Amino acid sequence: MKPLKVRISITLDDPIYQKIKGLAEYDDRSVSSYINLALREHLAQLDREAAE
Fold this sequence. Notes:
Helix content: 55-70%
Number of helices: 2
Distance between the termini: 33 Å
Shape: globular
Radius of gyration: 13 Å
Number of strands: 0
Order of helices and strands: HH
């Protein structure tokens, strides 16, 4: 069973969007999937730092 997804709307600065779009294309992912991955990794990093 896939985890539930929540549809949201965000506003990004154009240079940030262009960078994410390029990275997503390079990684053969959608922009949404790439943002989800980046946020998941960032949150995991915060959890590791909090555990130190």
